[in-house]
Specification:
Layout lengths: L1 H12 L16 H6 L7 E3 L5 E3 L1 H5 L4
Antiparallel strand pairs: 1-2
Length: about 60
């Protein structure tokens, strides 16, 4: 029974795909922003050294 539980835990752990694939284009506007040199970075490093999503720069209006 313990062996079956361990096998089930290992089998279920490998079934999920990663959420963000590292694709350079996040939306249909990213290619245009990159051509205009306005593409925001995906993540920023905070004061504690942790990587955080760069939501503020990605959501602000472009010039």
């Amino acid at each position: 029974m313990i062996l079956a539980a361990a096998f089930a835990a290992l089998a279920l752990g490998g079934c999920s795909r990663e959420l963000f694939t590292g694709d350079p284009y996040r939306s249909q506007y990213d290619r245009y922003d990159q051509a205009q040199s306005q593409l925001a970075e995906d993540t920023v490093v905070d004061a504690y050294g942790n990587r955080r999503p760069n939501l503020r720069a990605r959501l602000q209006p472009r010039d």
